[in-house]
């Protein structure tokens, strides 16, 4: 970590136990996060000044460490305390301005080699994990920026869009809110071949085409009138389902096939001239 070696070498005379090394490491992480150290102790002193270094008496007590910090923009202060409990150091950081509190527990032996306290290259173990713990658990996160209020014009537009979306999703509305002439039905293609008998095979499928063969659904092209196309001034497009049995208004095309007199004769009827 850039700068930590210089700091550790400077403070080596005050480092006499593993917890001293941990406090030195955490101190440098706080400095790298945009703070400067003001001094030790709970209360400000007349000679306080911002510094990246540790104060002269920072390790006078091996049971309790107390350090004060201030951000580079002077907007945030931190009171950091570290308490030694067996093989752990419990850090506590307090922002007096907002009363925001954060804490971190460090197992000393996981990150410091007690046999190499005076050798910087060998003293720290798993430094990356300790850095992550300090950044995510001890240092308070910056407050989220407040959302800017929307203008009245934007609010009206948002409200209008919401109302239109609600109308289009109304359970009793068929399709989107469009003019009737421009609306296209979503019925299945009635000209699909072999459609007859489909409803008998799958009565719950919702499709048409039972045992009664509809000549308009037999798979052959239909000459002449298409009722789903609409009649100008009479019926708009989409008013009649495609393939519906529908008697059009007036002449709707040439060569229209007439009715078949032999279509569906009554039972026992075998002579059309009787």
UniProtKB/TrEMBL annotation:
Keywords: Acetylation, Cytoplasm, Endoplasmic reticulum, Methylation, Phosphoprotein, Proteasome
Keyword Cell membrane part of the UniProt annotation: no
Keyword Acetylation: yes
Biological process (GO), any one: proteasome-mediated ubiquitin-dependent protein catabolic process
Region (Disordered): 136-192, 227-274
PI31 proteasome regulator C-terminal domain location: 166-251
GO cellular component: endoplasmic reticulum; proteasome complex
Record field: compositional bias (Basic and acidic residues): 158-171
PI31 proteasome regulator N-terminal domain segment(s): 13-139
Major location (coarse): cytoplasm
Pfam families documented for this protein: PI31_Prot_C (PF08577), PI31_Prot_N (PF11566)
Subcellular location: Cytoplasm; Endoplasmic reticulum
Compositionally biased region (Low complexity): 137-151
Source taxon at top rank: Eukaryota
UniProt GO molecular function: endopeptidase inhibitor activity; proteasome binding
Function of the molecule: Plays an important role in control of proteasome function. Inhibits the hydrolysis of protein and peptide substrates by the 20S proteasome. Also inhibits the activation of the proteasome by the proteasome regulatory proteins PA700 and PA28.
Protein family membership: Belongs to the proteasome inhibitor PI31 family.
The name this protein goes by in its record: Proteasome inhibitor PI31 subunit
Organism: Osmerus mordax
Gene responsible for this protein: PSMF1
